[in-house]
Specification:
mainly alpha; Growth Hormone, Chain: A; 81% helix
């Protein structure tokens, strides 16, 4: 059956946006919903702190490693087709997670889940990018998409807490199946097929180096918490990560059709967007990892009550993201990025003196401010990364921005978890987490600085130069 071109009417375009948002809601939800289940998983499966970190990071590392490849393949073979395949794999992984007999199996099944998820995030953004051709309308659509992503990630603890209270931690994976199946039907019915006119070739060597670099870096950070920063295992794995990264850059620079186009990073706004995503989502990953363990350990709250405590963050992120999208469409990205970074920094700073008995009012205010900051930061990242890129490479460009987000979450969980593991002996969880809140404060300040630096007139000029004809000629001659 031939679907109508969604670009022909606003109603059809909004329908495609709704379908993409529905699909991406469950994928983004699984970035955070698991956090509230960590104490329950720890008790039932006798999981260690490092295993809990891997339950989160196995998902984000695999997603981050494969997003660029998935976006490139979708540009080549068809975005709607890859979107449907990703949904089926994601549903399969979710069902397997719900039946995991041990922590190790749960980690493995989370990787299967992420394999499917990697085919959804960049492809959804690519579909949106090619459906909304008007720049202002596209910025608003991306703002809605960012709001859904932010809402799903922020609501994860709240929804997870309710599901755990009703049916246990395995229920957080059951809910993905009906939503995913509905999305499969809707995509097949309403989303037309699209491809890039000049798709990129598959780059297996570059892809393998990305997986090795991200996996080894995350492993080194996580294991440093229990083995020590100077241990042979930590240093050896870190050396592998560095070697893989250096090899990747050298290899990609020589390719005429690289996995990640080096000329993209000649654009200060695009490079800045990637760095802002890493910093902002490092703060988010650390925030959620600490908050749920703190609320259920030091304060003794149930999963439901722990989720309710994070509701101010969810609500403020949901409200801020669409407002940020409109602001970006009218006035550019700077104001949203500066305000967002300030919110992340202030919200984290309020918790640098965290105690088991910190007043509830102070906690809720900090969560509210942090959520506002996160909601403001997300839309300008996507808009900056995608809007400045050629339409034919929208999938790859969106994938790089999404990869940066997931790298940030992985680093946030790995770094903050390592800090807690190293300092938890003989202290409360709250006291062990204080250095982590300082790290998140610094991340917010980095977002502010990069938000200003990446939106100057000079920076915008580099974006035009990086994607112009001369840039392509320079790359071909390199």
């Amino acid at each position: 059956m031939t679907q109508p071109d969604p670009r022909s009417s606003r109603r059809a375009r909004l329908g495609v946006l709704a379908i993409c948002c529905l699909s991406i809601f469950v994928v983004s939800l699984d970035n955070t919903i698991v956090n509230v289940a960590l104490p329950s998983i720890r008790r039932e499966l006798s999981a260690s702190v490092s295993q809990l970190q891997w339950v989160v990071d196995a998902y984000t590392v695999v997603l981050a490693s494969l997003l660029v490849l998935a976006g490139s393949i979708a540009d080549r073979v068809g975005r709607a087709r890859i979107f449907r395949v990703g949904l089926v794999l994601f549903i399969t992984g979710s069902v397997l997670c719900s039946a995991a007999p041990s922590a190790s199996w749960l980690i493995a099944f989370r990787a299967v889940q992420a394999l499917g998820g990697s085919m959804l995030n960049p492809v959804a953004m690519s579909i949106i990018r090619n459906t909304f051709t008007d720049e202002r309308e596209r910025a608003q659509a991306i703002g809605v998409w960012g709001g859904v992503v932010g809402l799903s990630m922020a609501l994860g603890p709240l929804l997870g807490g309710g599901l755990i209270a009703i049916a246990g931690w395995r229920a957080i994976f059951w809910v993905n199946a009906p939503v995913g199946l509905l999305a499969v039907v809707l995509v097949r019915r309403f989303v037309p097929e699209s491809r890039a006119s000049e798709p990129r070739r598959v780059d297996p060597i570059g892809q393998a180096l990305v997986i090795v670099a991200l996996g080894a870096l995350t492993y080194a950070i996580i294991e440093s918490g229990s083995n020590g920063v100077a241990s042979a295992r930590t240093l050896g794995t870190a050396a592998i990560a560095v070697a893989a990264l250096v090899s990747f850059v050298a290899y990609e620079w020589r390719r005429s059709d690289p996995l990640i186009d080096p000329r993209f990073f000649r654009s200060i706004p695009f490079s800045g967007a990637a760095a802002i995503a890493i910093a902002g989502f490092t703060a988010l990953g650390g925030f959620l990892f600490i908050t749920n363990l703190y609320l259920q350990s030091d304060r003794g709250l149930s999963p439901v009550h722990a989720g309710l405590y994070t509701l101010p963050m969810a609500a403020s992120a949901f409200v801020a993201a669409p407002l940020s999208g409109r602001l970006v469409g009218k006035r550019g990205a700077r104001l949203s990025l500066v305000a967002g970074g300030a919110g992340l920094a202030i919200g984290s700073l309020l918790l640098t003196g965290l105690e088991p008995t910190t007043p509830v009012g102070r906690l809720l205010i900090a969560y509210l401010i942090f959520g506002l900051g996160f909601g403001m930061v997300n839309p300008p990242i996507t808009n900056t990364a995608v809007s400045g890129m050629p339409a034919a490479q929208a999938g790859v460009a969106a994938a790089i921005a999404s990869t940066s987000r997931l790298v940030g979450i992985s680093l946030g969980v790995a770094i903050i978890g390592a800090i807690i593991a190293a300092g938890h002996a003989g202290t409360s969880f709250a006291q062990a987490s204080r250095a982590g809140w300082w790290v998140m404060t610094a991340c917010g300040l980095v977002v502010v600085a990069l938000g200003i630096a990446s939106t100057t007139a000079h920076a915008l000029a580099t974006a035009r130069a990086a994607t112009g004809p001369q840039a392509r000629e320079d790359l071909a001659a390199a």
